[in-house]
Amino acid sequence: MKLAARDRYPYVTPNSIKGNEMYKTGDLVVVEGYTNIFSSLINIGQKLFGRTKNHKVFHVGMIYHSGYYLHALYGKGVIFSKINENVSVWRLKTPLSPKEVREFKAFKEEYLGTRYETNIWEFLSSLLDWTGSQEADTERFFCSELVAEFFIRSGRLGADLPSNEYTPQNIVNSGLWERPSNDS
Q1: Which homologous superfamily is 5-176 in?
Q2: pTM, entire model
C-alpha cells in the first residue's frame, strides 16, 4: 500500500557540496549517526557481525534533482526530502546517462509512496548475510534496499546480492560513489 502525497515531506543544504556545484541525479545522500530504532539495530548488528568497519552510515538516499532526494524513511515509506546540513552528498563516480536518468524518473514514479520495510526478518537477513532463498521484494523498502534496487536494475551494482541484502554501509562501500574530500 502506498502512502498519500501529503506524507511526502522535507526531512533533511549539505555541508559537503558548496558553491556552484550542482547535485546530480544518482548522487548518494549519506546520513551518519543514529536516526531511529533500526539505526540502533544496524549499529549493533554491524558491530556483532563485522559488516562495518570504521563507519557509522545509517541512512542513504539518491539525489533526484538539485535540492531533493528520494529515500525510504521509517514511518513514512519512500518519499522526497529536501537536503540540508545534516547529510553528506557523495558523488557518483560515473554520472548517470540520459537514459539512466529517464529510468530513475520511472523508478521514482513507480515506488514513491511505497511503505518502509518493517519485517524484522528482512532486516536481520541483510545484517547477517542470510542470502540463500532470499529474493528482493519491492512491496516495502529499507533505505539501502531502495538505492540497491535502482542500481542493480541499471547494471551498476552486481546482482549477486538481491537488493534487500544491502545495508547502508554496503552501499557506500560499493565503489560507485566517492566521499567528498571535505567530509570527514
Answers
A1: endopeptidase domain like (from Nostoc punctiforme) (3.90.1720.10)
A2: 0.75
